[in-house]
Amino acid sequence: MSKAILIHRQGGPEEMRWEEVEVLAPGPGEALIRHTAVGLNFIDVYHRSGVYPLAKLPSSLGSEGAGVVEAIGSGVQEVKVGDRVAYAGGPIGAYAERRVLPAARLVVLPPSIEDRQAAAMMLQGMTTQYLLRSTYRVQPGDTILLHAAAGGVGLIACQWAKHLGATVIGTVGSSAKAELAKAHGADYVIDYSKENFVARVKEITGGKGVPVVYDSVGKDTFEGSLDCLRPRGLMVSFGQSSGLVPPFNPVVLSTKGSLFLTRPTLATYTASRGDLLASAGELFDVVGKGAVKIEINQSYPLAEAAQAHRDLEARKTTGSTVFLV
Protein backbone atom coordinates (compact mmCIF):
# COMPACT_ATOMS: atom_id res chain seq x y z
CA MET A 1 0.00 0.00 0.00
CA SER A 2 0.96 3.61 -0.56
CA LYS A 3 -0.44 6.91 0.69
CA ALA A 4 -2.05 9.83 -1.10
CA ILE A 5 -4.09 12.95 -0.46
CA LEU A 6 -7.72 12.22 -1.37
CA ILE A 7 -10.92 14.22 -1.45
CA HIS A 8 -14.28 12.44 -1.18
CA ARG A 9 -16.21 15.59 -2.12
CA GLN A 10 -15.21 18.92 -3.59
CA GLY A 11 -14.97 21.83 -1.17
CA GLY A 12 -12.50 23.55 1.14
CA PRO A 13 -9.05 22.41 2.27
CA GLU A 14 -10.68 20.51 5.13
CA GLU A 15 -11.89 17.95 2.58
CA MET A 16 -8.32 16.75 1.96
CA ARG A 17 -7.35 13.48 3.66
CA TRP A 18 -4.02 11.59 3.89
CA GLU A 19 -5.09 7.99 3.22
CA GLU A 20 -3.78 4.61 2.17
CA VAL A 21 -4.40 3.73 -1.47
CA GLU A 22 -3.74 0.71 -3.64
CA VAL A 23 -1.33 1.27 -6.52
CA LEU A 24 -1.76 -1.16 -9.40
CA ALA A 25 1.03 -2.49 -11.62
CA PRO A 26 1.51 -0.48 -14.81
CA GLY A 27 -0.38 -1.73 -17.84
CA PRO A 28 0.56 -1.45 -21.51
CA GLY A 29 2.03 1.98 -22.28
CA GLU A 30 2.19 2.92 -18.59
CA ALA A 31 4.91 3.54 -16.00
CA LEU A 32 4.91 3.39 -12.18
CA ILE A 33 6.50 6.48 -10.62
CA ARG A 34 7.79 6.89 -7.07
CA HIS A 35 7.49 10.61 -6.40
CA THR A 36 10.30 12.53 -4.76
CA ALA A 37 8.64 15.94 -5.12
CA VAL A 38 5.23 17.23 -6.21
CA GLY A 39 4.30 20.71 -7.41
CA LEU A 40 1.51 22.92 -6.08
CA ASN A 41 -0.47 25.01 -8.59
CA PHE A 42 -3.64 27.07 -8.45
CA ILE A 43 -5.39 24.62 -10.74
CA ASP A 44 -5.24 22.19 -7.80
CA VAL A 45 -7.46 24.61 -5.87
CA TYR A 46 -9.91 24.69 -8.77
CA HIS A 47 -10.08 20.89 -8.79
CA ARG A 48 -10.46 20.68 -5.01
CA SER A 49 -13.09 23.42 -4.69
CA GLY A 50 -15.29 22.47 -7.62
CA VAL A 51 -14.50 25.36 -9.97
CA TYR A 52 -13.37 22.56 -12.27
CA PRO A 53 -15.73 19.62 -11.55
CA LEU A 54 -14.09 16.21 -11.19
CA ALA A 55 -15.51 13.28 -13.13
CA LYS A 56 -15.07 10.78 -10.32
CA LEU A 57 -14.75 10.87 -6.54
CA PRO A 58 -12.88 10.06 -4.39
CA SER A 59 -9.97 11.62 -6.21
CA SER A 60 -6.46 12.75 -5.55
CA LEU A 61 -5.24 16.17 -6.68
CA GLY A 62 -2.21 17.57 -8.45
CA SER A 63 -0.97 17.78 -12.02
CA GLU A 64 2.79 17.95 -11.64
CA GLY A 65 5.54 15.87 -10.10
CA ALA A 66 9.01 14.41 -10.36
CA GLY A 67 10.46 11.10 -9.30
CA VAL A 68 11.90 7.77 -10.37
CA VAL A 69 10.46 5.12 -12.67
CA GLU A 70 10.00 1.91 -10.64
CA ALA A 71 8.28 -0.26 -13.25
CA ILE A 72 7.02 -0.09 -16.83
CA GLY A 73 4.28 -1.87 -18.72
CA SER A 74 4.53 -3.63 -22.06
CA GLY A 75 5.37 -1.56 -25.11
CA VAL A 76 6.89 1.35 -23.20
CA GLN A 77 9.80 2.95 -25.07
CA GLU A 78 9.73 6.50 -23.75
CA VAL A 79 11.30 5.71 -20.34
CA LYS A 80 13.05 2.86 -18.53
CA VAL A 81 13.25 1.68 -14.94
CA GLY A 82 15.52 3.96 -12.91
CA ASP A 83 15.00 7.05 -15.06
CA ARG A 84 14.50 10.36 -13.29
CA VAL A 85 11.39 11.84 -14.83
CA ALA A 86 8.94 14.69 -14.48
CA TYR A 87 5.53 15.55 -15.88
CA ALA A 88 2.85 18.23 -15.91
CA GLY A 89 -0.76 18.06 -16.95
CA GLY A 90 -2.45 14.84 -17.90
CA PRO A 91 -4.51 12.83 -15.39
CA ILE A 92 -4.69 14.50 -11.99
CA GLY A 93 -3.40 12.55 -9.01
CA ALA A 94 0.12 13.81 -8.25
CA TYR A 95 -0.54 14.17 -4.49
CA ALA A 96 0.60 10.61 -3.93
CA GLU A 97 3.70 8.69 -2.92
CA ARG A 98 3.37 6.52 -6.04
CA ARG A 99 1.20 6.58 -9.12
CA VAL A 100 0.83 5.03 -12.56
CA LEU A 101 0.93 7.35 -15.57
CA PRO A 102 0.95 7.08 -19.36
CA ALA A 103 4.64 6.83 -20.24
CA ALA A 104 4.14 9.19 -23.18
CA ARG A 105 3.41 12.03 -20.73
CA LEU A 106 6.76 11.64 -18.94
CA VAL A 107 9.90 13.62 -19.73
CA VAL A 108 13.34 12.30 -18.76
CA LEU A 109 15.22 14.90 -16.72
CA PRO A 110 18.70 16.04 -17.74
CA PRO A 111 21.41 15.84 -15.04
CA SER A 112 21.34 19.63 -14.66
CA ILE A 113 17.76 19.65 -13.34
CA GLU A 114 17.10 18.48 -9.75
CA ASP A 115 13.89 16.68 -8.79
CA ARG A 116 12.60 19.48 -6.55
CA GLN A 117 13.38 22.01 -9.26
CA ALA A 118 11.55 19.93 -11.85
CA ALA A 119 8.48 19.49 -9.67
CA ALA A 120 8.40 23.24 -9.13
CA MET A 121 8.75 24.25 -12.75
CA MET A 122 7.20 21.81 -15.20
CA LEU A 123 3.63 23.08 -15.17
CA GLN A 124 4.45 26.73 -14.57
CA GLY A 125 7.50 26.66 -16.85
CA MET A 126 5.77 24.97 -19.78
CA THR A 127 2.79 27.27 -19.27
CA THR A 128 5.18 30.21 -19.58
CA GLN A 129 6.73 28.64 -22.67
CA TYR A 130 3.45 28.39 -24.57
CA LEU A 131 2.30 31.83 -23.39
CA LEU A 132 5.44 33.66 -24.49
CA ARG A 133 6.43 31.54 -27.50
CA SER A 134 3.15 30.29 -29.00
CA THR A 135 -0.02 32.05 -27.83
CA TYR A 136 1.68 35.39 -28.47
CA ARG A 137 5.27 35.18 -29.66
CA VAL A 138 7.05 37.87 -27.66
CA GLN A 139 9.58 39.81 -29.72
CA PRO A 140 12.46 42.11 -28.74
CA GLY A 141 11.07 45.57 -28.08
CA ASP A 142 7.57 44.41 -27.10
CA THR A 143 6.01 45.85 -23.95
CA ILE A 144 3.81 43.26 -22.22
CA LEU A 145 1.48 43.32 -19.20
CA LEU A 146 1.68 40.41 -16.78
CA HIS A 147 -0.70 40.10 -13.84
CA ALA A 148 0.34 38.24 -10.66
CA ALA A 149 3.97 38.94 -11.51
CA ALA A 150 5.22 37.57 -8.17
CA GLY A 151 3.44 34.23 -8.53
CA GLY A 152 4.88 30.98 -9.83
CA VAL A 153 4.22 31.63 -13.52
CA GLY A 154 4.81 35.35 -12.99
CA LEU A 155 8.39 35.08 -11.74
CA ILE A 156 9.32 32.67 -14.52
CA ALA A 157 7.59 34.80 -17.15
CA CYS A 158 9.29 38.02 -15.97
CA GLN A 159 12.71 36.44 -16.41
CA TRP A 160 11.93 34.71 -19.69
CA ALA A 161 10.33 37.78 -21.25
CA LYS A 162 13.36 39.89 -20.29
CA HIS A 163 15.60 37.22 -21.84
CA LEU A 164 13.57 37.67 -25.04
CA GLY A 165 14.18 41.42 -25.03
CA ALA A 166 10.74 42.58 -23.88
CA THR A 167 9.79 45.36 -21.48
CA VAL A 168 7.73 43.83 -18.67
CA ILE A 169 4.95 45.59 -16.77
CA GLY A 170 3.88 43.47 -13.82
CA THR A 171 1.03 43.84 -11.34
CA VAL A 172 1.19 42.65 -7.73
CA GLY A 173 -0.82 43.03 -4.53
CA SER A 174 1.78 44.19 -2.01
CA SER A 175 5.04 46.09 -1.62
CA ALA A 176 6.93 42.87 -0.80
CA LYS A 177 5.68 41.23 -3.97
CA ALA A 178 6.61 44.34 -5.94
CA GLU A 179 10.22 44.00 -4.83
CA LEU A 180 10.20 40.32 -5.75
CA ALA A 181 8.89 41.00 -9.25
CA LYS A 182 11.48 43.74 -9.78
CA ALA A 183 14.25 41.40 -8.67
CA HIS A 184 13.15 38.93 -11.35
CA GLY A 185 13.16 41.29 -14.29
CA ALA A 186 9.97 43.36 -14.24
CA ASP A 187 10.77 46.84 -15.57
CA TYR A 188 7.65 48.43 -14.10
CA VAL A 189 5.67 47.04 -11.17
CA ILE A 190 2.16 48.24 -10.32
CA ASP A 191 0.77 47.55 -6.84
CA TYR A 192 -2.94 47.38 -7.65
CA SER A 193 -3.81 47.84 -3.97
CA LYS A 194 -2.44 51.38 -4.28
CA GLU A 195 -2.59 52.29 -7.98
CA ASN A 196 -5.03 52.09 -10.88
CA PHE A 197 -3.22 49.65 -13.15
CA VAL A 198 -5.05 50.77 -16.30
CA ALA A 199 -4.05 54.40 -15.83
CA ARG A 200 -0.48 53.40 -15.00
CA VAL A 201 -0.14 51.16 -18.10
CA LYS A 202 -1.43 53.97 -20.31
CA GLU A 203 1.11 56.31 -18.70
CA ILE A 204 3.99 53.89 -19.24
CA THR A 205 3.06 53.27 -22.88
CA GLY A 206 2.33 56.89 -23.74
CA GLY A 207 -1.37 56.09 -24.16
CA LYS A 208 -0.77 53.38 -26.78
CA GLY A 209 -1.45 50.31 -24.66
CA VAL A 210 0.25 46.93 -24.92
CA PRO A 211 0.03 44.25 -27.62
CA VAL A 212 -0.69 41.46 -25.11
CA VAL A 213 -1.97 41.01 -21.56
CA TYR A 214 -1.33 37.78 -19.66
CA ASP A 215 -4.09 37.51 -17.04
CA SER A 216 -4.37 34.64 -14.54
CA VAL A 217 -6.35 36.70 -12.00
CA GLY A 218 -9.70 36.69 -13.77
CA LYS A 219 -12.73 38.52 -12.38
CA ASP A 220 -10.92 41.39 -10.66
CA THR A 221 -8.69 42.34 -13.60
CA PHE A 222 -10.45 41.19 -16.77
CA GLU A 223 -12.20 44.41 -17.78
CA GLY A 224 -9.21 46.54 -16.90
CA SER A 225 -6.95 44.22 -18.86
CA LEU A 226 -8.98 44.84 -22.01
CA ASP A 227 -8.56 48.57 -21.47
CA CYS A 228 -4.77 48.16 -21.37
CA LEU A 229 -4.60 46.69 -24.88
CA ARG A 230 -3.74 48.60 -28.02
CA PRO A 231 -6.04 48.14 -31.04
CA ARG A 232 -5.99 44.51 -32.26
CA GLY A 233 -4.21 43.49 -29.05
CA LEU A 234 -4.48 40.01 -27.55
CA MET A 235 -6.07 39.26 -24.16
CA VAL A 236 -4.71 35.96 -22.82
CA SER A 237 -6.91 34.77 -19.96
CA PHE A 238 -5.25 31.68 -18.48
CA GLY A 239 -6.59 31.56 -14.91
CA GLN A 240 -9.05 33.02 -12.44
CA SER A 241 -7.49 33.24 -8.98
CA SER A 242 -9.95 36.01 -8.02
CA GLY A 243 -12.98 34.20 -9.47
CA LEU A 244 -14.53 33.38 -12.81
CA VAL A 245 -14.86 36.12 -15.42
CA PRO A 246 -18.55 37.10 -15.68
CA PRO A 247 -20.31 36.57 -19.00
CA PHE A 248 -19.91 39.49 -21.39
CA ASN A 249 -21.04 40.59 -24.84
CA PRO A 250 -18.34 39.92 -27.48
CA VAL A 251 -19.23 43.30 -29.02
CA VAL A 252 -17.09 44.74 -26.20
CA LEU A 253 -14.02 43.42 -28.05
CA SER A 254 -14.93 45.44 -31.13
CA THR A 255 -15.68 48.66 -29.27
CA LYS A 256 -12.35 48.49 -27.44
CA GLY A 257 -10.32 48.17 -30.63
CA SER A 258 -11.03 44.90 -32.48
CA LEU A 259 -9.38 42.94 -29.68
CA PHE A 260 -8.58 39.23 -29.65
CA LEU A 261 -9.36 36.97 -26.68
CA THR A 262 -8.07 33.49 -25.97
CA ARG A 263 -8.40 31.06 -23.06
CA PRO A 264 -5.52 28.59 -23.60
CA THR A 265 -4.54 25.49 -21.62
CA LEU A 266 -1.28 23.59 -21.23
CA ALA A 267 -3.09 20.37 -22.14
CA THR A 268 -3.87 21.68 -25.62
CA TYR A 269 -0.39 23.09 -26.23
CA THR A 270 1.35 19.84 -25.18
CA ALA A 271 -1.22 17.34 -26.46
CA SER A 272 1.20 15.56 -28.78
CA ARG A 273 4.42 13.88 -27.63
CA GLY A 274 6.38 16.11 -29.98
CA ASP A 275 4.88 19.31 -28.60
CA LEU A 276 5.48 18.10 -25.03
CA LEU A 277 9.15 17.36 -25.65
CA ALA A 278 9.66 20.63 -27.51
CA SER A 279 8.09 22.65 -24.70
CA ALA A 280 10.04 20.87 -21.97
CA GLY A 281 13.23 21.09 -24.00
CA GLU A 282 12.94 24.86 -24.40
CA LEU A 283 12.26 25.17 -20.66
CA PHE A 284 15.28 23.02 -19.75
CA ASP A 285 17.38 25.16 -22.09
CA VAL A 286 16.58 28.55 -20.52
CA VAL A 287 16.89 27.15 -17.00
CA GLY A 288 20.15 25.41 -17.88
CA LYS A 289 21.58 28.65 -19.29
CA GLY A 290 20.64 30.50 -16.12
CA ALA A 291 18.33 32.85 -18.03
CA VAL A 292 15.46 31.64 -15.85
CA LYS A 293 15.97 30.74 -12.20
CA ILE A 294 13.32 28.66 -10.45
CA GLU A 295 12.47 30.08 -7.04
CA ILE A 296 11.18 27.46 -4.59
CA ASN A 297 10.01 29.76 -1.82
CA GLN A 298 7.84 27.28 0.11
CA SER A 299 7.93 23.55 0.77
CA TYR A 300 5.58 21.33 2.78
CA PRO A 301 5.38 17.63 3.58
CA LEU A 302 2.82 16.11 1.21
CA ALA A 303 0.70 15.07 4.20
CA GLU A 304 0.25 18.79 5.01
CA ALA A 305 -1.17 19.71 1.61
CA ALA A 306 -4.29 21.25 3.14
CA GLN A 307 -2.23 23.95 4.87
CA ALA A 308 -0.41 24.68 1.62
CA HIS A 309 -3.79 25.22 -0.09
CA ARG A 310 -4.86 27.63 2.66
CA ASP A 311 -1.66 29.62 2.26
CA LEU A 312 -1.96 29.69 -1.54
CA GLU A 313 -5.56 30.91 -1.47
CA ALA A 314 -4.66 33.56 1.11
CA ARG A 315 -1.94 34.80 -1.30
CA LYS A 316 0.72 34.16 1.33
CA THR A 317 2.98 32.33 -1.13
CA THR A 318 5.40 33.63 -3.75
CA GLY A 319 7.20 31.87 -6.53
CA SER A 320 6.91 28.09 -6.59
CA THR A 321 5.80 25.67 -3.89
CA VAL A 322 6.66 21.98 -3.68
CA PHE A 323 5.56 19.04 -1.57
CA LEU A 324 8.31 16.72 -0.38
CA VAL A 325 7.52 13.02 -0.50
From TrEMBL:
Keyword terms of this UniProt record: NADP, Oxidoreductase
* Keyword NADP set for record: yes
A GO cellular component term found in this entry reads:
cytosol
Taxonomic superkingdom: Bacteria
Q: Which residues cross the membrane?
A: none
Recorded GO MF terms: mRNA 3'-UTR AU-rich region binding; NADPH binding; quinone reductase (NADPH) activity; zinc ion binding
Family annotation (Pfam families): ADH_N (PF08240), ADH_zinc_N (PF00107)
Q: Which residues form the Enoyl reductase (ER) domain?
A: 11-323
Record keywords: NADP included? yes
Fetch the SMART domains from UniProt. PKS_ER (SM00829)
Report what the protein is called. Quinone oxidoreductase
**Organism of provenance:** Telmatospirillum siberiense
